[in-house]
Amino acid sequence: MKIIAVLIFMISLSVSAQTGTVASPSPSILKANSMIKNPFELRDPFKRELRRKRSGKKVYPGSRTVFSNIQTIDNTPLDRIKITGILIGKERRAVAKTIDESGKIGDQSYILKEGMKLGENSAEIKAILPGGIVLVEKIRNVYDQDEYLETIIPVASD
After folding, report:
1. Is 37 in the same domain as 83?
2. 106 Ramachandran zone, left/alpha/beta (phi>0; psi -120 to 50)
3. What are 96-142's pLDDT values in tens digits?
4. Which of 12, 131, 138, 140 is the most exposed place for a label (fewest CB within 10 A)?
């Protein structure tokens, strides 16, 4: 209703501007109340927003990366990972070791968390259970469809 009243008022102004006579708006338009309290405080939709200044240090691309020479277990094949322990609590953790080519267990221990990616196909650790860990990896099958493989790595008994 208010929109129609505003349109009528705008049409009457444009007609009066073309004819040179001033037409008074209808009384129903003058009595209509608008929900906008102060229209002059509204942002101009045709102007770009002003950016607020940031306080703090300037962040450069690549400055949030962490470089380390500590070995990771990320790209180790899944058949060369051995789970040696499970930590159950508020945040579940698994302790893993790698097996080298000769079948010998390495000395380095790795802490695994749920959500981490392991293996060559980036299998995600979905669950850490008292008996082992559950991994889910996404592969493409021969029909070019996504397929999910679940792998369970049990806790090693030796």
Report:
1. no
2. beta
3. 999 988 989 988 999 999 999 998 888 999 999 999 999 999 999 99
4. 140
Rounded Cα distance between 78 and 156, Å, is: 14
3-state secondary structure of 29: helix
* 112 Cβ neighbours under 8 A, 6+ residues apart: 73, 93, 94, 95, 96, 118, 125, 128, 133
Q: Is 17 helix (H, G, I), strand (E, B) or coil?
A: helix
> Would you say the C-alpha torsion 30, 36, 40, 43 has a positive or negative sign?
negative
Cα end-to-end distance, the chain, whole Å = 81
What is residue 76's three-state secondary structure? coil
Full-model pTM: 0.55
* Contact (CB, 8 A) for 110 and 125: no
Spatial distance between the Cα atoms of 90 and 45, rounded to a whole number of angstroms: 50
From CA 117, how far away is CA 119, in angstroms rounded?
A: 7
Amino acid residing at 72: T
Output 111 or 46, whichever has higher pLDDT.
111
Instruction: Assign residue 88 the CATH number of its domain.
Output: 2.30.30.830
Across 77-102, average pLDDT = 92
Residue 94 in any domain: the answer is: yes
